Amino acid sequence: MKKLVLATAIAAATTMSMTAQAQEVGTFDIDVNVVASCQLVANPVNFGDVDAFADIDAITAAAPATLDVTCTNGAGYDIALGHTGQLTHATAPAVTYSLFQDAGFLTVWNDTTDTLAATGNGAIQNYDVFAQLAIDNTTEIGAYTGTVTVTVTF
Protein backbone atom coordinates (compact mmCIF):
# COMPACT_ATOMS: atom_id res chain seq x y z
CA MET A 1 0.00 0.00 0.00
CA LYS A 2 2.87 2.36 0.75
CA LYS A 3 4.18 1.84 -2.78
CA LEU A 4 0.81 2.70 -4.32
CA VAL A 5 0.49 5.90 -2.30
CA LEU A 6 4.05 6.92 -3.21
CA ALA A 7 3.49 6.24 -6.93
CA THR A 8 0.24 8.22 -6.85
CA ALA A 9 1.97 11.13 -5.11
CA ILE A 10 4.79 11.20 -7.69
CA ALA A 11 2.31 11.08 -10.57
CA ALA A 12 0.26 13.90 -9.06
CA ALA A 13 3.36 16.06 -8.48
CA THR A 14 4.57 15.52 -12.06
CA THR A 15 1.17 16.46 -13.46
CA MET A 16 0.98 19.58 -11.30
CA SER A 17 4.45 20.80 -12.31
CA MET A 18 3.72 20.31 -16.00
CA THR A 19 0.52 22.33 -15.87
CA ALA A 20 2.08 25.12 -13.79
CA GLN A 21 4.70 26.04 -16.50
CA ALA A 22 2.68 27.79 -19.19
CA GLN A 23 4.42 30.32 -21.50
CA GLU A 24 3.45 33.33 -23.50
CA VAL A 25 5.85 34.34 -26.33
CA GLY A 26 5.96 37.82 -27.78
CA THR A 27 8.20 39.87 -30.03
CA PHE A 28 9.31 43.47 -30.30
CA ASP A 29 10.95 45.49 -33.08
CA ILE A 30 14.43 46.98 -32.88
CA ASP A 31 15.46 49.71 -35.31
CA VAL A 32 18.44 51.95 -36.00
CA ASN A 33 19.06 54.65 -38.58
CA VAL A 34 22.75 55.22 -39.30
CA VAL A 35 23.25 58.80 -40.46
CA ALA A 36 26.07 60.34 -42.45
CA SER A 37 28.91 61.71 -40.38
CA CYS A 38 32.34 63.09 -41.28
CA GLN A 39 35.49 64.17 -39.47
CA LEU A 40 38.18 66.44 -40.91
CA VAL A 41 41.82 66.93 -39.99
CA ALA A 42 43.51 69.68 -42.01
CA ASN A 43 47.31 69.67 -41.95
CA PRO A 44 49.18 72.90 -42.79
CA VAL A 45 51.20 74.05 -45.78
CA ASN A 46 54.66 75.26 -44.85
CA PHE A 47 56.75 76.94 -47.52
CA GLY A 48 59.70 77.10 -45.14
CA ASP A 49 62.46 79.66 -45.77
CA VAL A 50 62.17 81.28 -49.19
CA ASP A 51 64.86 83.29 -51.01
CA ALA A 52 62.83 85.98 -52.77
CA PHE A 53 65.96 87.62 -54.22
CA ALA A 54 66.20 84.84 -56.79
CA ASP A 55 63.37 86.64 -58.68
CA ILE A 56 61.01 83.74 -58.23
CA ASP A 57 57.56 84.50 -59.64
CA ALA A 58 55.83 81.43 -58.23
CA ILE A 59 57.18 79.24 -55.48
CA THR A 60 55.56 75.91 -54.75
CA ALA A 61 55.38 74.30 -51.35
CA ALA A 62 57.97 71.58 -50.81
CA ALA A 63 55.31 69.34 -49.30
CA PRO A 64 51.60 69.74 -49.91
CA ALA A 65 49.10 70.11 -47.13
CA THR A 66 46.91 67.10 -46.53
CA LEU A 67 43.24 66.87 -45.71
CA ASP A 68 42.30 63.71 -43.83
CA VAL A 69 38.57 63.06 -44.22
CA THR A 70 36.78 60.19 -42.50
CA CYS A 71 33.11 59.74 -43.41
CA THR A 72 30.54 57.06 -42.72
CA ASN A 73 30.63 54.25 -45.28
CA GLY A 74 28.44 55.27 -48.23
CA ALA A 75 28.15 58.95 -47.23
CA GLY A 76 28.66 61.30 -50.16
CA TYR A 77 30.59 64.47 -49.42
CA ASP A 78 32.18 67.53 -51.06
CA ILE A 79 35.39 69.29 -50.02
CA ALA A 80 35.55 73.01 -50.70
CA LEU A 81 38.19 75.61 -49.94
CA GLY A 82 39.14 78.97 -51.34
CA HIS A 83 41.62 78.69 -54.20
CA THR A 84 43.41 81.97 -53.58
CA GLY A 85 44.17 84.04 -50.56
CA GLN A 86 46.72 86.22 -48.92
CA LEU A 87 49.42 85.78 -46.34
CA THR A 88 49.81 88.81 -44.14
CA HIS A 89 52.90 90.38 -42.61
CA ALA A 90 53.09 92.71 -39.60
CA THR A 91 54.20 95.73 -41.68
CA ALA A 92 54.60 94.68 -45.33
CA PRO A 93 52.00 94.23 -48.07
CA ALA A 94 50.30 90.84 -48.21
CA VAL A 95 51.55 88.01 -50.42
CA THR A 96 49.12 86.05 -52.63
CA TYR A 97 48.88 82.26 -52.77
CA SER A 98 46.88 79.79 -54.88
CA LEU A 99 45.74 76.28 -53.96
CA PHE A 100 45.43 73.33 -56.33
CA GLN A 101 44.16 69.74 -56.23
CA ASP A 102 47.03 68.36 -58.32
CA ALA A 103 50.83 68.59 -58.42
CA GLY A 104 50.66 69.96 -61.98
CA PHE A 105 48.77 73.04 -60.72
CA LEU A 106 45.95 72.55 -63.22
CA THR A 107 42.87 72.00 -61.03
CA VAL A 108 42.27 74.78 -58.53
CA TRP A 109 40.47 74.30 -55.26
CA ASN A 110 37.36 76.39 -55.03
CA ASP A 111 34.56 76.88 -52.57
CA THR A 112 31.81 76.82 -55.20
CA THR A 113 32.66 75.33 -58.60
CA ASP A 114 35.82 73.25 -58.18
CA THR A 115 34.95 71.24 -55.11
CA LEU A 116 36.09 67.65 -54.79
CA ALA A 117 33.28 65.09 -54.53
CA ALA A 118 33.84 61.69 -52.91
CA THR A 119 32.10 58.89 -51.01
CA GLY A 120 33.10 57.79 -47.53
CA ASN A 121 34.25 54.25 -46.83
CA GLY A 122 34.56 54.46 -43.04
CA ALA A 123 38.35 54.90 -43.21
CA ILE A 124 40.58 57.97 -43.49
CA GLN A 125 40.76 59.28 -47.04
CA ASN A 126 43.67 61.63 -47.75
CA TYR A 127 43.66 64.58 -50.15
CA ASP A 128 46.62 66.77 -51.05
CA VAL A 129 46.46 70.54 -51.29
CA PHE A 130 49.24 71.94 -53.47
CA ALA A 131 50.16 75.56 -52.88
CA GLN A 132 51.81 78.16 -55.06
CA LEU A 133 53.11 81.45 -53.70
CA ALA A 134 53.50 84.64 -55.75
CA ILE A 135 56.58 86.55 -54.57
CA ASP A 136 59.53 88.32 -56.15
CA ASN A 137 62.68 90.12 -55.02
CA THR A 138 60.66 93.14 -53.85
CA THR A 139 58.85 91.08 -51.21
CA GLU A 140 59.84 92.27 -47.74
CA ILE A 141 61.60 89.83 -45.42
CA GLY A 142 59.78 88.39 -42.43
CA ALA A 143 57.06 85.97 -41.47
CA TYR A 144 53.78 85.85 -43.44
CA THR A 145 50.78 83.91 -42.17
CA GLY A 146 47.25 83.07 -43.26
CA THR A 147 44.37 80.71 -42.68
CA VAL A 148 42.37 78.61 -45.12
CA THR A 149 38.84 77.49 -44.30
CA VAL A 150 38.05 73.94 -45.40
CA THR A 151 34.42 72.87 -45.64
CA VAL A 152 33.28 69.25 -45.89
CA THR A 153 29.59 69.08 -46.81
CA PHE A 154 27.84 65.73 -46.38
From TrEMBL:
<dbReference type="Pfam" id="PF05229">
    <property type="entry name" value="SCPU"/>
</dbReference>
<feature type="signal peptide">
    <location>
        <begin position="1"/>
        <end position="22"/>
    </location>
</feature>
<keyword id="KW-0732">Signal</keyword>
<dbReference type="InterPro" id="IPR053167">
    <property type="entry name" value="Spore_coat_component"/>
</dbReference>
<feature type="domain" description="Spore coat protein U/FanG">
    <location>
        <begin position="26"/>
        <end position="151"/>
    </location>
</feature>
<dbReference type="InterPro" id="IPR007893">
    <property type="entry name" value="Spore_coat_U/FanG"/>
</dbReference>
<protein>
    <recommendedName>
        <fullName>Spore coat protein U/FanG domain-containing protein</fullName>
    </recommendedName>
</protein>
